[in-house]
Amino acid sequence: MVHRCFIGLGANLEQPLITVQRAAEVLARHPALHNWRCSSLYQSKPMGPQDQPDYVNAVACFDTELQPLDLLDTLQSIEQQFGRLRGRRWGPRTLDLDLLFYANENINHERLTVPHPGILEREFVLIPLAELAPDLLLPTGQTAAVAAQQIPLNDLCKVV
User: What is the mean pLDDT of the chain?
Assistant: First the structure.
């Protein structure tokens, strides 16, 4: 069975713009991910500790037959290819790939929560998500476009 998925991409170490672009290329070429689409890239202030560089973020969608934990493993493997180390929570990172939605499923597993619990508080997710899928229904019942109109931008700006 094919599942429509949405992921968040983010980076703020080394060359984050190039990293997010290259990660998107790697994901787009992955044999298990089909019909790949990616939003514009955005620059955002860090969430959590402010003693780190700004982030470059995007949201992408694709279809896959991978099961949720297999998809998570795939995403984490790609993070590791880009030098991801897991340090402090919300700390700086070379690449972060978050599974936002896996079809219409609700997943509560020790390794994975979907829909991603922070979607509604993160302008760097909602704005590119609304760009990519304005009519996508969020857990609140509102569309991504409506939620994006209501969230403070916190200096979020489009870079590409």
Answer: 94
To the query of whether residue 84 is one of the catalytic residues in this protein, the response is yes
Which pLDDT score is estimated for 45? 94
Instruction: To the nearest 10°, report the CA torsion of 156, 138, 134, 121.
Output: -10
Structurally, the chain folds into a number of domains equal to 1
Structural domain that includes position 32: 3-158
Give me the residue label for tokens 């990616």. Answer: 38
The predicted-structure confidence for 73-124, as pLDDT tens digits, reads as follows 999 999 999 987 666 676 688 999 999 999 999 999 999 999 999 899 999 9
Catalytic residue (one of 54, 63, 93, 122): 93
Catalytic status, residue 111: no
Closest-CA residue to 62 (of 94, 100, 10, 117): 100
Threshold 0.90, pTM exceeds: yes
Phi and psi angles of residue 60, each rounded to the nearest 5 degrees, phi first: -130, 155
> Are the beta carbons of 103 and 3 closer than 8 angstroms?
yes
Neighbours of 130 (CB within 10 A): 22
- CATH number for the domain harbouring residue 122: 3.30.70.560
pLDDT for the residue 47 = 84
Catalytic: which of 4, 88, 96, 155?
Answer: 96
96 is a catalytic site residue: yes
